[in-house]
Amino acid sequence: MTTVVFMGTPQFAVPILQGIIDHGYQVLAVVTQPDRVVGRKKKLQMSPVKQAALTNGITVLQPEKISGSTAMQQITMMAPDLIITAAYGQFLPTALLNSAKIAAINVHGSLLPKYRGGAPIQYAIKNNDDVTGITIMYMAKKMDAGDIITQASLPILLTDDAGSVFEKLSYLGRDLLLKTLPQIIDGTAPRLPQDESQVTFAYNIKPEEEQIDINCSARQISGLVRALRPQPGAYCDFAGKRTKLWDITVLDQETDEQPGVVVAKTKKTLVIAAGKHTTFAINCLQPAGKAKQPIQAYLNGLGRNINIGDKVITNDN
Fold first, then answer.
1. Which residues are annotated as a binding site?
2. pTM of the entire structure?
3. C-alpha closest to that of 254 among 215, 217, 214, 295
4. Which of 31, 171, 198, 281 is a Cys-bridge partner for 249, taking CB atoms 3.0 to 4.6 Å apart?
5. How far is CA 184 from the centre of its chain?
6. d(CA 315, CA 317)
7. At how many degrees (to 10) do helices 162-186 and 14-22 cross?
8. Chain segment 287-307, per-residue pLDDT in tens
9. Are strands 26-31 and 103-108 parallel, antiparallel or unpaired?
10. CA gap 206, 135 in Å, rounded
11. 3-state SS of 55-95?
């Protein structure tokens, strides 16, 4: 029986782990990030991968840093046939990669060499790409630079956000991995070096990058809103308050109004000017300290005094 050490953290990795288990591979251990305090109540929470591992009765290792850790020593002593990673969240030392008898492979959420890094799905949506995908690759010391084994693509719909694409790619990644594993194990899997001239990076999005630039086009703003949904959300200075825009619709209507100005308002709609003469309608928003609310509820409450011609969105912090 082929033995595996699996390394992953978010929900994206759970279907991949479960697929490996269900197809009869022997998972010796699961490595995931340490439990973290989350939410206002500061509740200690396990990663989704840890929860899945415990449900399946698998040993869980949670080093704060894998390099030089006791967990790394344990994995090396296990000498698994395969090390499989999917959104684990840490660099792996060469000595750890070399401890796999057959190979150390990664399930990456982009069509490499495009979008190496920790936020490939968010970048694809933020940049309004039409397609994304999964890459199964051999792991190397350099981030996401290993040889490509196989890939599968997935269209990005205008209705998609990071949450929906994460879910779709997790199942696509599971199916592609399970299809590819027999070739990896018997040594017939291809190795395609990445074209370094085509490399782009998708580093984890910083808090300051979550702010909407109202001078961008409505399509660019929509890309950011969808890329940061369901979390952490894209925000702006709206009517003097830090406000998250959770859902907007890009409109065909053009305008000569300055970005951030209200160009249309009814009891149920609010249309805002963006950069490049574009406009968008706000469908759902969340002022600081308030719950998410549809635009109609907002206009009946906090937004009842907003009028056409008012500049409600600025680039102020």
1. 110-113
2. 0.94
3. 217
4. 281
5. 27
6. 6
7. 40
8. 999 999 999 999 999 999 999
9. unpaired
10. 25
11. HCCCCEECCCCCCCCHHHHHHHHHCCCEEEEECCCCCCCHH
